[in-house]
Amino acid sequence: VFDVDVAVTNPEKVVQFKDTSLPMFRSKAFTVRRRYSDFLGLYEKLSVKQSLLGCIIPPPPEKSVVGMTKVKVGMDDPSSVEFVERRRAALERYLQRVVSHPSLLQDPDVREFLEREELPRAVSTQALSGAGFLKMINKASDAVNKMTIKMNESDTWFEDKFQEVENEEQQLRKLHALVDSLVNHRKELCGNTAVFAKSMAMLGNSEDNTALSRALSQLAEVEDKMEQLHQEQAASDFFIFEELLADYIRLLGAMRGCFDQRMRAWQRWQEAQSTLQKKREAEAKLLWANKPDKLQQAKDEITEWEARVTQYERDFDRVGMTVRKEVLRFEKEKAKDFKSQIIKYLEAMLQSQQRLIKFWEAFLPEAKAIA
Amino acid sequence: MFHEVGGGGGGGGGGGGGGGVTDLTVRQGANQSAEEGASWLYTFIIGVVGLFVDLPPTMTSSIDESSKEKMRSVSVDLNHDASLLIDIPDALCERDKVKFTVHTKTTLSSFQKPEFSVPRQHEDFIWLHDTLVETEDYAGLIIPPAPPKPDFESPREKMHKLGEGEATMTKDEYTKMKQELEAEYLAVFKKTVQVHEVFLQRLSSHPTLSKDRNFQIFLEYDQDLSVRRKNAKEMFGGFFKNMVKSADEVLISGIKEVDDFFEQEKTFLLDYYSKIKDSTAKAEKMTRAHKNIADDYIHVSATLNSLSADDSTANKKHLEKLADLFEKLRKVEGRVASDQELKLTELLRYYMRDIQAAKDLLYRRARALADYENSNKALDKARLKSKDIPQAEEHQQHCLQKFDKLSESGKKELTSFKGRRVVAFRKNLIEMAELEIKHAKNNVTLLQGCIDQLKNN
């Protein structure tokens, strides 16, 4: 049992570690500075390497031209602040998922990312903008769809699971949009409450009955506090709930990607078999035509392709097994993740309601004092 | 008066439901409305529980306290004079036209029967209000503001949207949205019944206005009032009302005030009116946002249910519990919205209109003062010309008397208005705070329950 904790703090995207008891790391706790493009670079490296193996690689948060431009210009407005926090939290979750994956943790690129003082600048990360990432996934799917030989699954597990994943992703997208709407309505409520509080304060000033005037001013203060609560709730709706959904929409995309990897492995095996078949036919033709010099070459090629077919079949089986393992691991992690995030979300909501009670309980005697 | 209608569920209140509606019979209209693609039409028959302070003890015990509270929002100290008791025990809503049943119980001999009911439309209330406003004798009184026209625009728009979005929702989601919509129709409906009822009760509890002949006709006349309404329109032509609207600000602020009390009142009322109008609009926006959130919760809950249904992993029950929680939370959120509306928005709105009525009184007094000053000038002119002096003197005396009468009565009215306003605010602010606390405590229980369930799994 090991423990690797990563934290990403802003603004220079410092990556911190605590309590690592793994012998592979140089020291117990250390800090490195990383750029956003470094995170993308890591993902790219892992994708290329692991793609043949069937692992589910957690994707990093997408690039955002709008968000980053604002931040670069140095704007201090709430939406920029929100964007920076959103990215920081997403990068942290991304890293945590990477290090909690037993195979990925062993990967030298991951270790280099975590430990090395200075990383060479990552290039060619354009492919990994949000649109780029989707394109990659879709390209793989297209390749699969274009396959002329349809796979005959003896075990429907893969087909069924793939369908499940597609459905789930669709529903999550729907839910994500709904939660986004909720966040916006919550922010609207926030604004409306602030405006109402001011209006109530003005009314209180206008009121000629002293006790009522005081009570109205107190009401204005309570509504001000409510605005604060609504704002915090909106942040919670977004950062805990909505971002959880966004993460899993990306992760399910990655999972679909790894199913496609398995299909590609199968395809490669089938193509090798068909090439082998062609080689054998060619050999037969040569035997007939009685061309002994070319015959040896043909035999060599057959041997080569027989080896490939065997290799590719083994690869395909191995990828299949990895995918299965990965999916099960993923499902377990997802259930844990959802549970802990949901609890976090609900606990925040609970605290908010408890504070709300205190505010109104403090107001009640003021209202009763009106005479 | 506990009125049961059709096969509705009896029993007290909504037990924490959208309000204290005891029975609600919703029937599909005979003619499907073809307007704007809406595919159904509702006919509401609502049994509204009699609301007020003086219900006999046996009745009160069978009515949910909170539902009584909910409905009795702005009426304070009304309807407790047994000589004339008025209420609106039920109303019928058909295609946005509301028919109120006005029920009267009286010991006064001026009425033909001790107890009776008549059907009335909104326009009849307006007719009554306008005739009171235009009665010279009542110029020194604050005429209770006319109830606003029943406005079903908001739920109607929602119904339209719901019809359009039906295809994209699950059956469950659609049912819940329809429930919310029905609750909203109901809320608008209850509001309009209440506001019409309060208008009548303000009249019945006023020493002078309760004796008005037209008021009696309104309560008693068992035929259609539309003929009288038409005559009234012809007589006054709506001219006076328009005049009041445009002229009062200028006149009230322009006149040189002789009395400190009225000077202060004028300043206060003009300022307060603009502030309370603003607050009313802002409170309305706040309530709307709450309602939107409650609606979002419905959709979130439905989608979580879909996810959970198709989930074969350990996550299934997490999603299920969360879906269930959101469904419960949305009911609470809906109630927070409607309570805030009733206790806060409606309170502000009512007193905004009441203050307008008080301003109208100031206007009439200012006009009487202007008349008096003009009569003085006319008298001076007559004296100068030595012509028609007795008429001028008589006219001047007449104006002075009118002005003094208005001032005296006006002072009394405005003073009692102050007291009334303060009492109503106190009551409603207390109730609103108590309801906010109640709903938040409910939320806490629901949230804690769900958290515990999740942790224990």
TrEMBL record, chain A:
Residues forming the PX domain are 1-121
What molecular functions are annotated in GO for this chain? phosphatidylinositol binding
Name of the featured protein: PX domain-containing protein
- Tell whether Transport is among the UniProt keywords: yes
Coiled-coil stretches are: none
Q: Which InterPro entries match?
A: AH/BAR_dom_sf, PX_dom, PX_dom_sf, Vps5_C
Q: Which PANTHER family match?
A: SORTING NEXIN, SORTING NEXIN-1
Statement: the UniProt record of this protein carries the keyword Transport: yes
Tell me the protein family, please.
Belongs to the sorting nexin family.
What span is annotated as the signal peptide, if there is one? none
On the tree of life, the source organism's domain of life is Eukaryota
Please report the record's description of how this protein sits within the membrane. Peripheral membrane protein
Annotated source species: Dicentrarchus labrax (European seabass)
Q: Which GO terms describe its cellular component?
A: cytosol; early endosome membrane; lamellipodium
Its keywords, alphabetically, are: Acetylation, Cell projection, Endosome, Membrane, Phosphoprotein, Protein transport, Transport
Q: Where in the cell is it found?
A: Cell projection, Lamellipodium; Early endosome membrane
Single Gene Ontology BP annotation? protein transport
Which Gene3D superfamilies does UniProt cross-reference here?
Arfaptin homology (AH) domain/BAR domain, Phox-like domain
From TrEMBL, chain B:
The domain of life for this entry's organism is Eukaryota
Keywords from UniProt, A to Z, are: Protein transport, Transport
Residue ranges constituting the PX domain according to the UniProt record: 78-225
What is the source species?
Dicentrarchus labrax (European seabass)
Residues covered by region (Disordered):
1-20
Please report which protein family the annotation says this sequence is part of. Answer: Belongs to the sorting nexin family.
Specify the protein name. Sorting nexin 5
GO cellular component, alphabetical, reads: cytosol; endosome
What high-level taxonomic lineage is stated for the organism? Eukaryota, Metazoa, Chordata, Craniata, Vertebrata
Q: Transcription: is it a keyword of this entry?
A: no
One of the GO BP terms on file: retrograde transport, endosome to Golgi
